[in-house]
Amino acid sequence: MAEVLIYSSDYCPFCMRAKQLLASKGVDFQEICVDGEPAVRAEMTRLAGGRTSVPQIWIGDTHVGGCDELYACARAGQLDELLAG
What is the pLDDT of residue 65? Predict the structure, then answer.
C-alpha cells in the first residue's frame, strides 16, 4: 500500500472528513498538524505548490490536494488505485 501523508489542523472539519474516509478504508496515514507551526505550514505550502488550506494530502508521490479532491478520487474509483501504489 502506498504511503499516505496528510497535513491537517485539529479544528478543521474538512481534515476530519478526509481522515474518516481514509480510516474507513483501513488506511494508515502519517499526519502532520500545522496548528501553531508556521514553519510546518510554510513547508506544506511549498510542497503543495502554493496551496495554503488544509488538509493537503499525498498518496505516494501524488499530491491529491484537499478533502474535496480526495472524495472526488474516491467517487471516480481512482482512490483505491492510488492507495495500491
Answer: 98
Return the number of other C-beta atoms located less than 10 Å from residue 6's C-beta.
Answer: 24
SS3 49: coil
Residues of the chain with pLDDT under 50: none
Residue 85: per-residue pLDDT = 83
User: Homologous superfamily of 4-84 in CATH?
Assistant: Glutaredoxin (3.40.30.10)
Domain ranges of the chain: 4-84
Cell of 58: 499525498
Instruction: Name residue 19's amino acid.
Output: K
Q: What is the 3-state secondary structure (H, E, C) of 45-81?
A: HHHCCCCCCCCEEEECCEEEECHHHHHHHHHCCCHHH
* CA–CA separation, 62 and 53 (whole Å): 17
